[in-house]
Design brief:
This protein is of the alpha/beta class. The chain has twelve helices and eleven strands. The strands form three sheets. The chain has a seven-stranded parallel beta sheet with strand order 3-2-1-4-5-6-9, with helices on both faces. A two-stranded parallel ribbon has the order 7-11. Strands 8-10 form a two-stranded antiparallel sheet. Helix 1 packs across helix 7. It starts with a strand and ends in a 6-residue tail after the last helix. The mean pLDDT is 93.
């Protein structure tokens, strides 16, 4: 198996991808801003990779043939921070970049993923786009505290439905695109097998946790104020607003058969995810 460098290696998808590739006996390199022994998985090599420090790119990419590229949530200026890494990958002889994009990114120029896709398409590198719907894990990470402390989901998604997907399923698809031939130049729209509203998510959380969790369809203003009190930067909040607006407009309800087809099994359900992650909200 080719040497594979994973950016965002300690994040939801990156960590799950590393686990799956290592289980397959892959040669895995974990790109981290500050490599730490406790964050390194057995069998993987941890290297320093800081999007804000281009001098870290070449050493991290040496000997790498395939790269899993994830945009850190706090980075909105992809031209400044991601494009130089793509250029360095081309110089280093990387053969394929698998980019973790977003469902519908090709039609949504507001989100940063759109610009990254366009840059990769004209980069001269082999590319693959993995375009998942909303991560189920957002509920146990980004929105964990509001659910745990306030028993409320605070997202400006209105009554829109979302085809939630578990990052474990995303990682399983990404692992295939990185280890098999035939995926260069392909874009995969990944969703779960059902589209649910955040009212549904609140109901499932309530059933699992044994206490009422509510979703009150907060306004954009309330959402922005809430995220500011959480310490989020304006650029990050604006990206989130753009993404949740797609849900509010009904554009996140698309259900595709791609994930099920590529994995040869049903996708992980939101109910199963909530059961698995129950401790996050206690």
């Amino acid at each position: 198996m080719h040497a594979i460098l994973i950016t965002g290696a300690t994040g939801n998808v990156g960590a799950a991808l590393a686990e799956q590739l290592l289980a397959q006996g892959g040669s895995v390199r974990l790109g981290m801003r500050n490599p730490r022994p406790e964050a390194t998985r057995p069998g993987a090599e941890a290297v320093r990779l800081d999007f804000a420090d281009p001098t870290s790119f070449a050493p991290a990419l040496t000997g790498v043939q395939r790269l899993f590229l994830m945009r850190p949530p706090a980075i909105a200026d992809t031209k400044r921070y991601l494009n130089p890494l793509v250029d360095a990958a081309r110089t280093a002889g990387v053969q394929q970049i698998v980019f973790l994009s977003l469902l519908g990114a090709e039609r949504n120029s507001v989100v940063p993923h759109y610009a990254v896709e366009r840059y990769l398409e004209q980069s001269g590198l082999g590319w693959t786009f993995v375009r998942p719907s909303f991560f189920m894990q957002n509920l146990s990470t980004t929105h964990r505290d509001e659910i745990r402390r306030q028993s409320e989901i605070i997202v400006p998604a209105g009554n829109g439905r979302t085809s939630f997907i578990d990052v474990r399923d995303i990682a399983a698809v990404a692992a295939r695109t990185l280890t098999e031939e035939g995926h260069i130049g392909q874009a995969y729209a990944l969703t779960g097998d059902e589209a649910l509203s955040y009212h549904d998510a609140a109901r499932l959380l309530s059933a699992e946790l044994g206490r009422p969790i509510v979703y009150r369809r907060p306004s954009l203003l309330r959402f922005v104020r809430h995220r500011r009190t959480m310490g989020d930067a304006w650029a990050y909040i604006l990206v989130m607003v753009g993404i949740y607006t797609t849900a509010r407009l009904g554009l996140a309800a698309t259900v595709t058969a791609t994930t099920r087809s590529m994995l040869g099994r049903p996708t992980i359900t939101l109910a199963q995810f909530i059961a698995d992650e129950r401790a996050a909200w206690l």
